[in-house]
Amino acid sequence: MPDPDTDEQRIRERAYLLWLEEGCPEGRAEAHWEAACRQDAEREAYVDGEGAESFPASDPPSHTPVMRAGRGAG
């Protein structure tokens, strides 16, 4: 389950970075917060989508090394 404190901190940091990128304008805190929330939601949707594509996590690796006869470990 997501940690609300961690989510809020991540959004707060993103809003701060947006504020810095815009040159530290006064009176735009709400706009920066909303933009940070929107970006966080987009990030979450992307991460959720990537997780769905890689399910199940127990898939075998796409490459399995081939051992030659007589050259194995041991």
Automatic annotation (TrEMBL):
Top-level taxonomic group: Bacteria
Give the region (Disordered) as residue ranges: 44-74
Name of a matching Pfam family: DUF2934
What name does UniProt use for this protein?
A: DUF2934 domain-containing protein
Lineage, opening ranks: Bacteria, Pseudomonadati, Pseudomonadota, Alphaproteobacteria, Acetobacterales
